[in-house]
Design goal:
heterodimer, A: about 300 residues, ten-stranded mixed sheet, globular, B: about 230 residues, mainly alpha
Chain lengths: ~300, ~230
């Protein structure tokens, strides 16, 4: 018995050591030819911005220009805002207007700015069992799906996309419930994969759809058109906002750099870059610029 | 800090209120992992015993494979099972993807090497002379093996506990092949991931505490049963 206890103790110590080992992994040295050590900025954002690949090109541009190391934490909208509320992020970039407004109203964030928007579409099995292809309004399509009891995959995770989906259901005066309504509580990519396997409809953002549609052979766009300009339902627009975390509440945040990031992201140059991002890859842009600076320079759009 | 406290309070509140969606999640977790454990034990215990007691040329290789299997990341197992059960996969016709069946299959694959490995170590720890004596006393092979297993029972129970602990707490495989469908394939671990992603850390923590309490009581029952069945020698 005593041997057993000492064995367990040894195992515990080893496990602890292993845990420390991973936690204390060395930080890669900064090899850039800059003299001052770079500041760090923690950006909490949603998985959709990361999955689209946009951040992978934007962040290095910002880092280079301002000698800063940006740590991107890509999580659900709820968790991204929570990271800000807890002072674990310096700035958040999310798309859920109501939750963003609550975040600012609660004093957790300051100076929210519009950044860009893309749009939501309804995708479904090519056979279109609910016969909704070509419908103009998402709410009408949702009504038809509910009447036909066609399988529908819901993100079910209170993300920006899920919030929009629930808004559409309530616009259609339907409380979705039943064996046909599948709430999977996962990310956009996983939910699309799920719908593809199950032959279900789902609401998704166009950026993720374009990036993944080659792997989703049994799905097709049924409502929303093939480009954002063809989307007849303006309620399907999906605006993104950038919000620095309030330094009055969390003195540890890097407010100077957070504010700098927000200014840079909404500047005309960056906005023009966003407007052309991935046009060569998809034949259309994934995000449309939407900042005040951009609208000032392009008053007709 | 506030999340820690409110998570703890919420766990008590959830348990007290007997929340129906929670009880559904708990029941499904126990069903999936329980069934997987029984089936994995049916494979793993004989396999471990056989590896411990027999001698053949590729035994070293087999043991290395079992040890590797003990460290299989659940998400990799999930990926394999997913690809097999996907509509495009070889077993797609079963229509098991995103059902509890798929989750059981994945957990069997995770638990079997754990059980086999621990059982093998336990049986190897039994004095080899015991078997020789039993043989010389006229015991059949089966009788002798059963006697060895009885001698190694503490280790065998540890093997089962390790197998169960490995699957009741894993999230990668059940998320992938179960789909975390509310009211259908959502279990404690996938519910914890979902609450965390939503930033509801207190609810996530509450579910984690419930998972811990559950595991504790199961292990307590196992311990009581074991000490009743095994007087004296430990």
């Amino acid at each position: 018995m005593r041997r057993l206890i000492s064995l367990i103790l040894v195992a515990l110590v080893l496990a602890l050591l292993a845990a420390c080992g991973t936690a204390a992994s060395p930080v890669p040295a900064n090899t850039a030819a800059t003299t001052a050590p770079p500041q760090t900025l923690t950006l909490a954002t949603t998985t959709s911005t990361q999955d689209s690949g946009l951040l992978d090109v934007l962040i290095p541009m910002f880092e280079k220009q301002y000698n800063v190391k940006v740590k991107v934490v890509a999580v659900g909208t709820g968790q991204a805002l929570k990271l800000g509320t807890d002072g674990n992020a310096d700035v958040v970039l999310v798309h859920a207007r109501k939750q963003e407004d609550d975040f600012v109203a609660a004093g957790d964030g300051i100076n929210r700015r519009d950044v860009m928007y893309n749009d939501f579409i309804i995708v479904g099995p090519s056979g279109d069992p609910a016969k909704i292809a070509g419908m103009k309004l998402a709410a009408d399509a949702f009504k038809q799906i509910a009447i036909q009891q066609s399988s529908f995959a819901s993100r079910g995770d209170k993300s920006g996309t899920n919030t929009k989906e629930l808004d559409i259901w309530s616009a259609a005066s339907i409380a979705p419930k039943g064996a046909w309504y599948l709430s999977v509580g996962q990310g956009m990519g996983e939910t699309l994969t799920f719908a593809n396997e199950k032959g279900a409809y789902t609401l998704g953002d166009r950026a993720t759809w374009l990036a993944q549609k080659n792997k989703l052979p049994s799905l097709t766009i049924v409502v929303g058109g093939n480009r954002i300009e063809e989307n007849a339902d303006k309620s399907l627009l999906n605006p993104y906002g950038v919000i620095p975390v309030n330094p009055a509440k969390h003195p540890n945040v890097n407010i100077k750099m957070a504010e700098q990031f927000a200014v840079w992201l909404t500047s005309l140059d960056t906005q023009n870059f966003i407007a052309h991002y991935s046009v060569d890859k998809f034949g259309q842009s994934l995000f449309h610029p939407d900042s005040a600076e951009w609208h000032k320079a392009n008053p007709t759009q | 800090m506030t999340d820690l406290v409110s998570g703890f309070l919420q766990a008590i509140e959830l348990l007290r209120r007997g929340d129906t969606s929670l009880s559904q999640i708990v029941v499904l977790s126990l069903q999936v992992s329980g069934i997987a454990l029984v089936i994995a034990a049916l494979f793993g215990l004989p396999l471990g015993t056989w590896l411990a007691l027999s001698r053949f040329r590729t035994r070293g290789l087999a043991i290395a494979l079992i040890y590797t299997g003990m460290g299989l990341p659940p998400v990799v197992v999930g990926l394999f099972v997913y690809l097999f059960l996907s509509h495009a996969g070889p077993l797609g016709f079963l229509n098991w993807l995103f059902t509890p069946n798929a989750m059981v299959v994945a957990q069997i694959i995770i638990a079997t090497p754990l059980i086999a490995g621990f059982a093998m170590a336990a049986v190897m720890g039994v004095d080899p002379e015991l078997r020789q004596q039993l043989h010389s006393l006229g015991a059949t092979r089966v009788q002798a093996t059963l006697a060895v297993l009885r001698e190694a029972r503490v280790g065998v129970v540890v093997a089962l506990v390790a197998g169960f602990g490995g699957i009741i707490s894993e999230v990668g495989a059940v998320m992938l092949v179960g789909g975390n469908i509310e009211g259908a394939t959502r279990v404690l671990t996938t519910a914890i991931v979902l609450e965390t992603r939503q930033g509801q850390f207190d609810r996530a923590l509450a579910l984690g505490l419930i998972l811990l309490v559950l595991s504790f009581f199961i292990n307590l029952v196992v311990f009581v049963l074991q000490s009743r069945g095994a007087p004296a020698k430990v």
